[in-house]
Design brief:
Elements (H helix, E strand, L loop, with lengths): L2 H10 L4 H17 L7 E5 L7 H5 L3 E6 L2 H8 L5 E4 L13 E7 L8 H9 L2 E10 L9 H5 L8 H10 L15 H14 L12 H12 L4
Parallel strand pairs: 1-2, 1-4, 2-3, 4-5
Helix pairs in contact: 2-9
Length: about 220
């Protein structure tokens, strides 16, 4: 991604409704479906500027890697864990380690060889280990946000399931989320396309009351 995008993420990901609510949902998912061992070994693939590291560190023994050096330095300042340089699919660090949980939160869409990357991550799972990932959905929602963030694709549920199965996974659950706010998002993007309006990146910080309401609505999906 562009340096300006990383800088903005670093400033927003603690407070912006999307990131804060998504962390709440993912933490709930991990606690409900993954926790159980005394010490859970966790790897975050593509940790970006480190917005998820504190949450993941509370759940187990965490390691992470990130290909962009500027983002990696920002991440190192946010959590007491090893954030190594690495990239998908061929430069995953921590060679001798196997992980009970690997997470890739909005990462795989940034990598052109997604099948090869998912296969490489699967090989780093311990017996019984699991992968939790999020990706942007629905190709027809493609926007300036995707372009500024250097996405290669958006996924459908069936398309992602097919890719995971070809990479050797047995999907235990795939679902769309942010469904409560989906009509609003789809409506705004549809109007922009219909009226040929400028399509700006949509990761700006909204006013505090709006941010709080959106965070509450989105985070409620953890239930």
């Amino acid at each position: 991604m562009e340096r300006a995008v990383f800088d903005r993420l670093d400033q927003l990901e603690d407070r912006h409704w999307w990131f804060a609510a998504r962390r709440a949902i993912l933490k709930h998912v991990i606690k409900r479906h993954i926790l159980g061992k005394d010490t859970l070994k966790i790897l975050e693939a593509g940790c970006g500027t480190g917005g998820n590291l504190r949450m993941l560190s509370d759940l187990g023994e965490l390691a992470a890697f990130e290909p962009d050096e500027d983002a990696r330095q920002l991440a190192l300042a946010k959590a007491d864990c090893d954030v190594a340089h690495g990239s998908l699919p061929d430069d995953i660090p921590f060679d001798d380690d196997k992980f009970d949980l690997i997470v890739a939160f909005d990462v795989i869409e940034h990598v052109e060889p997604d099948l090869e990357s998912l296969t490489a991550l699967r090989k780093r799972l311990a017996p019984g280990g699991k992968l939790i990932m999020t990706v942007p959905a629905l190709p027809w929602l493609w926007s300036a946000h995707d372009e500024r963030h250097h996405h290669f694709r958006r996924y459908t549920r069936d398309g992602l399931q097919d890719t995971l199965q070809r990479a050797g996974y047995r999907p235990l659950g795939l679902t769309y989320f942010n469904m409560f706010l989906f009509p609003l998002v789809a409506g705004v993007r549809g109007i922009k396309k219909l009226l040929n309006l400028p399509d700006y990146a949509d990761d700006q910080m909204p006013p505090a009351p709006v941010n709080a309401i959106l965070r509450y609505i989105f985070a409620a999906e953890k239930f």
